[in-house]
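Below is a filled-in request sheet from our internal design queue. Each sheet records the structural input a requester submitted and the sequence that came back. We keep these sheets so that new team members can see what a complete request looks like end to end.

REQUESTER: design group, bay 2
PRIORITY: normal
MODE: inverse folding
CHAIN LENGTH: 176
BACKBONE (tokenized):
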């Protein structure tokens, strides 16, 4: 049997610095903290993915927005993997880290629903991680010109769920 891994995608300071708030921001933060505590208590590896973009001042390395948010800060022994695209697996070390620890089931949470979270879920499926979990109430985004954050999250849960991921609420996520 392989290893469960909690993948925290782009829970960075920039997400909390804008005038506009994330959809269900406080609930999502509480759920992120809940699953993080469960993973740590079970000894499940936690990997933080950190978006890095030198052309965007909010995500430029060492900027205030680039830092992993204090709401879920990594412990010294937890891995932080940087990425430069929406796909957490694109040209980065993440796949090597998974192979190193024998990861076979991913539990995915984080930001932003329609960008990095969606792309990473689909990419993981294509790479053979076909029994992974998206924590349905531990990801979020902002309203855009066409859809509200609520509609975006609901749409992605409906499209990704039971196709690319299994959906579980934070309360139903358990690590062995």
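RETURNED SEQUENCE:
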């Amino acid at each position: 049997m392989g290893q469960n891994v909690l993948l925290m995608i782009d829970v960075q300071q920039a997400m909390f610095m804008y005038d506009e708030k994330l959809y269900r921001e406080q609930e999502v933060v509480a759920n992120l903290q809940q699953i993080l505590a469960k993973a740590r208590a079970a000894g499940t590896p936690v990997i933080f993915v950190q978006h890095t973009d030198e052309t965007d001042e909010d995500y430029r390395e060492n900027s205030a927005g680039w830092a992993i948010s204090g709401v879920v800060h990594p412990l010294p022994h937890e891995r932080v993997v940087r990425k430069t695209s929406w796909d957490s697996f694109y040209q980065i070390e993440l796949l090597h880290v998974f192979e190193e620890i024998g990861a076979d089931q991913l539990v995915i949470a984080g930001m932003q629903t329609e960008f990095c979270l969606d792309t990473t879920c689909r990419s993981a499926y294509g790479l053979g991680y076909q029994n992974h979990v998206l924590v349905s109430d531990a990801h979020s985004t902002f309203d855009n010109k066409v859809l509200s954050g609520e509609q975006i999250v609901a749409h992605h849960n409906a499209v990704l769920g039971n196709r690319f991921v299994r959906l579980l609420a934070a309360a139903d996520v358990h690590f062995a």
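SHEET NOTES:
- The mean pLDDT is 95.
- The radius of gyration is 15 Å.
FILED BY: M.R.
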